[in-house]
Amino acid sequence: MFTRQNLKAAANTTSYERGQQYFKRGYVGKISRENNTFKARVEGSERYKVRLTVDRTGATYRCNCPYDYDGICKHAVALGLAVLQKFGSPVEPLPMPDTSEQALLQALLDTPVTTQLAFLTNLLRTEPRLREQFLLHLAPAAPAAASSAPVAAPEELTTIEEVSTEVYEALADLVFDDDALSEHTDYYGEYLHDEGDGMLELADEIICDVLKPFARFVADHLAHGRLTRALEYWIGVYEGATAATDPAADDYSLFSYEGYPARVLDCWDRLLNESGVDARLKTTDFGDAKTEAALTLLFDRYAQQGSPPDYFADLLADLTRTPAAAARLRPRLEAAGPPLSPDQAHLLLHTAEALADDALWRRTAEAHAGQDFGLLQRLLDHYRQHDDRPNLLRLLRQYREQFSHRLDPYILEHLTLADDESLYLTALEQRCRSTQSLADYEQLRPHWSVAQRRQFVDEQVERQRKAWGGSNPLFGAGLLVAENRAPELLAYLLAQQWLSSGGVPELLALTARPQPEATFDAVMERTEQALASSRGRDVYQRITSWLLALNEFEALRPGIALFATHLYTEYSKLNALREELRAAKLVKTERFGKTYRLVPPTPEDDELRELLRDRKKR
Questions:
Q1: pTM of the model
Q2: Which residue from 33, 156, 409, 553 has the least number of CB within 10 angstroms?
């Protein structure tokens, strides 16, 4: 039993009061009831799905909002109040029926046949899977010889317009809401609270139920050689699908990304593939007359557009694999353009290949290379394989700026400096900039003037100085070293974000070669700053890596050891820092029971401590 008292007890004061406001403002949508479960959408910062299930002891609640505090959320409170208003208080749970086999048999005996048939008819109408099983179960077994009989005579089948209208009306009437989607899975509750690809899979099943009969017609007509009739069904489904721009309801915005027609056609293509249509088209020669009739149907149907939609490009390619069929397609395509769409261009290339017409292939590829990089690459490969260097270089120069990101790797892989120095060096410079490759820079250096090299290095150094987090400063440092500008490394080092940049230890090693003492001073300063502003093992590991980088320099080792000892004693409460220093062997310690203690300093250490103290004062 569910009452207002149950609802108040389930929520804290704040949630209950806000739930009341939502209820009074009409934020609760249409309530659906299934046995003892009530479901509705409740408006909030978003539309949330809420369900309430009544039992003998009260009620249970579920909402997909992020609330995870004391009691139930305001959306559940709003739904509870709406249920009490609509169904009265208290809401009593419905008695659960006896579903045993004996009870079922008794119910059948007690129910009139007309009532049984009405219930069965309604159930089969709303349950596509059950309907299919029912029909398969009742269908009489066909004699073996009947498997080759035609589906129906062509004159008995519907026209393209009738197919299109039927498909359009069926798709436009589809509803994608909780009730419709839940019919297609026993695990709908899992999908309900995880609206990802699973919800689209359920929607695809609903769409496929509409399209399956039409896919069977296409498959059956093709199996019996009726190419034109199969194509009429195919065209009808395409036109009906593209006309149905939206379903009757899409509560979850399942089709907002790619659009409803595109999703429907994806389902249609999958059904055709599963029914063997694609394989049959790729392996069957329908003969000149049937192929000509199919081409005439497609091109006449879309004569006002100039040629069939790009959607039919793969179908046309399958139909025109032979030279004879390709010869029939070629004049139709040429009459349709220019300009040709990318799919039409690829279809004309397919025709040229079937006809072994190299001139047509090159002419078509040249005309459309600027629209499609894949086509441009095929043309480049063609000239390269035929050792046609002049045309290869002409295309690379023509399209290099337009497709630089893709063509630069192609140029560096297939060209040499001798082929075209300007083209090659331009591609190499872009790769050097994007990959920050010192090896590429070493290739570029001999071909650049001093001024060009200085300008490039200054640009890259400035770029690294402005970079924030995650950048690798080693490229800029390597450029400075390559140009004998090592004294600038210290300023470059100090401009980095040490706690977020990668490669700082390696940069320290480079900087310490010409300026060891100044680099050590920088490390001590940045370490103290880091410990004053940050905590955590990641910070301590970075500090340790800085000290280890300088510890490779013998002249700095005593000072590093002393500074590490200072850190160990000064920050005695930072256990993780002490662990990192011990693990790196930057401090001298000895085990004493379960703890560690520093090894007493030597007179030399005392002298170093004085030097360190003086350095820190400067």
A1: 0.56
A2: 156
